[in-house]
Structure formats: C-alpha cells, structure tokens
Specification:
Blueprint (H helix, E strand, L loop, with lengths): L3 H23 L6 H25 L6 H17 L4 H21 L6 E8 L7 E9 L2 E8 L7 H19 L5 H16 L7 E7 L4 E7 L5 E4 L2 E4 L19 E4 L5 E5 L16 H13 L4 H13 L8 E8 L1
Antiparallel strand pairs: 1-10, 2-3, 3-4, 4-5, 5-8, 6-7, 6-9, 9-10
Helix pairs in contact: 1-2, 1-3, 1-4, 2-3, 2-5, 3-4, 5-6, 7-8
C-alpha cells in the first residue's frame, strides 16, 4: 500500500513528466535538418532523464511512467539513427496521440493541468522552452526567445536545454528561477559569445505547497487569473540572457490557490500580423482568456484560437508560444 507522502509525490511529478514529453515531441520537426534533429535529440534526452529519475523514486503513475519512457526511447532512437523524414512524421503524430491519451487517462490524479502550444515556420523558429521535474513535487519551466542575425536556434536551444538538464540533476529542488537564469546566461556567453541575446522567463512550481517562484530576464511576466480576476504578475524585468554585465534577477514568490491559472506568452505572440497589418492587443487576448476560463476551456487552446483568428489563418506565422498552468 502506498503511503500518503509517496502518493502525494506521485501526483506531483507526473505533470512535469507529461509536459516534458509533450514539449519534446513538439520539438521533433523532421523538416528542420541537422540542427532541428539535434534540438529534438536534446529535448527527448532531457525528458527521458526526468522519466527515469521519477521511476527510480516512484514519482509518478505506475502506468504512465513506463509508457512515457517507451515512447521517448523509441523516438530518441529514430532521431539518433537519422530515420527518414516520413517515418519520423508518422512516429511524431502517433506519439502526439498517445501523449494526449496519457494526459486524459491520468487527469484525475494530477494537481494541475499543464498545456503548451507553439507555432511558426521551421525556418523562422525563435522560441525555445523546457519543462522539467526537479523532484517528486516540484518542476521548473523556462520560456525564451533567441535573438541574433546568425543564430541557429535549434543549436542554441539544444545547448540551453542540455545545460538546464545538467543543472536540474545537480541541484534538484535547489534550482530556483534566478539560478536557472544565471546557468543559462553563462552557457550562452561561453558557447556563443557576443551577438546573441535571449529574453526569458523561468518559474519554479511546488505542486504540494502550491508555491510559485518567478524571475524574468528581459521577458514579459506571467499572467495570473484568480476567481475571474486578471493580473500581470509584477516582477523585476531584468536584462536578457547574454547581456553583460550579468545581474542576478530578483524572484517573485506567490502562494497559489486551487483554481488559479498562470499563462506565459513569448514575444512572438505580439508580433503576429493580421490581414490589416495589426498585431494582437493584450486587452483582446485578456478578454478571450477570461471568456474561455468561464466556459472551463484550456487557457492555451483559447489563446491559440484567438491568435489564429487575428492572423486570419493557421498557416505559417512568426513563432508564438503559449503555455498555461491551472491548479486543481
């Protein structure tokens, strides 16, 4: 029989594990060449490391963890074996469907719902993200935008994910958003030198204590909705990663409640042009978000639909990334 602390840990680890599986699959775009495969390989390896650690600690659903591990191992082998594009596409689509089924099957045991959506032409991708378990009941999320004329976003994103994975393993719960920013800044400067900047936000979420820690590095903050009331979390904006001299960002601490919603949007979200050349207005997205929440819909899905409506098409648009967390 599972004791209560262990059961709590199982519920806490699974959201980050399923989220990391989902983000790894979305990074698997067979059309982006060697750089894209390297980014996908790094994302898959990062997600797999989290699953294996959770299995060792019994930190998740007995059914979902082995299934997630098998999916990740199979995809990682396909990428490393340089499997042809069509085979990769089929494997990616099958894994997307299975990932959705896993989320649905385990929904009752999770303390939160986590959803992520990204868009953009493979040749113009600028966003990268990572969501990883720090322990059985804590996760770290990072969202950033790579800025630089000669930047190979797939390579930069892969390097940042790898550095973050090492930090997660080494520091566990000790890795807060401020320290994550410093690790990523050092990686960016050491590997790529001057000329690259990455506005980013990082957050740490304790799913048992319902505590949020948030820090920004030249990136807009998270949105927070509680009982139908919207606010932008006030946090020191900081300077983008890659900008010297580095200053340690200051984190915002927030106690969350059941029903709270957090939403993060990348810079590209506000650069999508409509047929008339206009860009999305924050006020319009806020209205769409609140209406969607009132109808008990996924925040990320509602915002995706609003952005597609603004663009007039779901065809290629400048990359935008939206993620949402809703606590039960």
């Amino acid at each position: 029989m599972v004791s209560e602390p262990e059961a709590s840990g199982q519920r806490g680890a699974l959201p980050a594990i399923l989220a990391s599986l989902g983000s790894a699959v979305e990074a698997l775009d067979p059309n982006t060449g060697d750089g894209g495969r390297e980014q996908a390989r790094a994302a898959l390896a990062h997600a797999l490391a989290g699953v294996l650690a959770a299995e060792r600690k019994r930190g998740g659903s007995r059914e979902a963890l082995p299934e997630a591990r098998k999916l990740l191992q199979a995809l990682l082998k396909l990428v490393e074996d340089r499997t042809d594009v069509e085979h990769l596409k089929r494997a990616r689509d099958q894994t997307r469907r299975r990932h959705a089924q896993l989320q649905q099957a385990t929904a009752g045991e999770l303390p939160l719902e986590l959803d992520l959506w990204t868009s953009g032409h493979p040749d113009r991708q600028v966003d990268w993200w990572s969501i990883a378990p720090l322990s059985a009941d804590a996760m770290l999320g990072v969202l950033g935008t790579v800025i630089g004329d000669e930047a190979d976003v797939a390579v930069v994103g892969g390097a940042l994910r790898a550095a973050l994975s090492v930090a997660c393993k080494g520091m566990g719960r000790g890795l807060g958003p401020e320290r994550a920013h410093l690790v990523l800044h050092a990686t960016l400067v050491d590997l790529f030198g001057a000329g690259l900047t990455v506005p980013a936000l990082a957050f740490k979420l304790d799913t048992t204590e319902r505590e949020l820690s948030l820090a920004c590095a030249g990136h807009r903050s998270l949105w927070h909705v509680r009982d139908g009331v919207f606010q932008t979390l006030r946090v020191h904006p900081g300077t983008p990663l890659g900008v010297e001299p580095v200053k340690r960002p200051r984190a915002l601490e927030l106690q969350l409640r059941p029903g709270d919603v957090l939403v993060g949007l990348s810079a590209g979200t506000f650069e999508i042009e409509g047929p008339d050349g206009s860009t999305p207005r924050e006020a319009d997205l806020r209205v769409a978000l609140l209406q969607g929440l009132a109808a008990d819909r996924s925040p990320a899905t509602v915002l995706r639909e609003a952005l597609v409506r603004h663009a007039g098409s779901d065809a290629w648009v400048p990359q935008a990334t939206v993620f949402s967390v809703r606590l039960r």
